[in-house]
Write a structure and sequence with these properties.
Elements (H helix, E strand, L loop, with lengths): L5 H14 L16 H13 L5 H10 L6 H10 L15 H14 L4 H5 L1 E10 L32 E9 L2 E8 L5 H18 L7 E2 L5 H4 L1 H10 L2 E2 L12 H15 L4 H14 L2 H9 L1 H10 L8
Helix pairs in contact: 3-4, 5-13, 10-11
Length: about 300
Amino acid sequence: MLNIPRETIGSIIRKFKAKGTVETLPGRGRKKMLTSTAVRYLKRRVEKSPRVTAEELRKDLSDVGTEVSAQTIRRTPRNEGLHARTPRRTPLRSPKTKKSRLQYAKSHVDKPQKFWDSVLWTDETKLELFGPMDQHYVWRRKNKAYEEKNTLPTVKHGGGSIMLWGCFASAGTGKLQRVQGTMNSLQYQEILDDNVIQSVTNLRLGRRWTFQQGNDPKHTSKSTRAWLQIKGWNILEWPSQSPDLNPIENLWWDLKKAIAVRKPKNVTELEAFAHDEWAKIPVDRCKTLVSSYASRLKAVITVKGCCNSF
């Protein structure tokens, strides 16, 4: 009637007569190596000390009589949602720097959106021909790591690179210019003279716009400060070691990803692709980054001047 083996029927009937049920009973399979208490200990330890190693955790448990492998240790936090990852690199920040960032965030968090929409955000970035945006993972079989299709060719010093200065506002991307050689204060001033006012005009920031720049020495040198004073621009005060507070960093990331997809073969193509992809960045992307700036400041306040996740 059921079209299943007679032996299966017999096994089910015998189990029901002996156990009173045909459900899978508890206690079957391999026993867990760690008690719930040990699992909770590992979770607390990893959350409190993210840099602790699996071997150190294994020794801790061994000292209290629980012998397990390092692999079991690694698997347990993973099952609790704690995964081993390469730590994000952030600028080294002193207590003074953290205090400065916190003060900046607190003094600007209540600025109206209209103010942020009138800010021209600026920065420089380096593009490498074979940069870190290239794919770092491949699917391969064991002992096949050095097959050509599974390797990532590298070239000393990135195989050639260019430095770019760029700007953007809520209304979209502004001018993008290549920096020739090593930029000093004089070249920086020339770049600003050639690009800032034109970008402000193109983006229609109005008369009461604000200029943002980082605290690089060429930005804050005596000659640059005097030059900016002559220009009469409204300068946004800026805390040191704060690239995470500049939303243009997000656009640089977008730009590098887009260029990596196109795989430029030389520096000339690298520069051409950069200008092309910079112009393609959607206005909505720019607007979203600026409209969420208050949230960025609130995040800095929450972590008391440390790095935020934007």
